[in-house]
């Protein structure tokens, strides 16, 4: 979860400073790597935590991801035009900051959380 906002910050500020084209690309790669790590971890957790209803959990996660993907393009061009890439990506990275401790919470309390809401097949 630290890699995800770090990649956003790296991409935004190197694009804002109009540095060599490879630096924003490296930031994009770091962001994409962090995004895929979060996405794959969340998918695995949802399937394991909501057995035997893993498909329904994945459908809910896909719906949330799709709604987010539909809403972001509505306001992001205006945000980047008014604020620039650096501050715009900093705002999005700050929205992601509360999620940084999530893997640690799931690691420490994940078993208790999964047992709390046991599903009967």
Number of helices: 4
Structural class: mainly alpha
Task: Report the biggest beta sheet as strand number plus sense, adding barrel if it closes.
Answer: none
In terms of per-residue confidence, which ranges show pLDDT below 50 for 5 or more consecutive residues?
A: none
Compute the CA-based radius of gyration: 17 Å
Rounded average pLDDT: 90
Taking the alpha carbons of the first and last residues, their distance comes to: 32 Å
Overall shape: it is elongated
Element-level helix/strand string: HHHH
Q: What share of residues is helical?
A: over 70%
**What proportion of the residues form beta strands (DSSP E)?**
under 5%
Structure, described:
- With 121 residues, the chain is mainly alpha-helical.
- The protein contains 4 helices and no strands.
- Helix 2 runs antiparallel to helix 3 (54-96).
- The radius of gyration is 17 Å and the shape is elongated.
- It starts with a helix and ends in a 5-residue tail after the last helix.
């Amino acid at each position: 979860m630290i890699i995800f906002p770090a990649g956003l910050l790296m991409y935004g500020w190197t694009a804002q400073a109009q540095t060599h084209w490879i630096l924003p690309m490296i930031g994009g790669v770091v962001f994409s790597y962090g995004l895929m790590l979060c996405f794959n971890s969340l998918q695995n957790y949802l399937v394991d935590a909501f057995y035997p209803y893993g498909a329904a959990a994945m459908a809910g996660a896909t719906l949330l991801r799709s709604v987010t993907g539909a809403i972001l393009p509505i306001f992001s061009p205006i945000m980047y035009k008014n604020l620039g890439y650096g501050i715009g990506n900093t705002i999005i990275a700050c929205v992601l900051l509360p999620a940084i401790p999530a893997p640690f919470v799931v690691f420490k309390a994940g078993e208790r959380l999964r047992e709390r809401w046991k599903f009967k097949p």
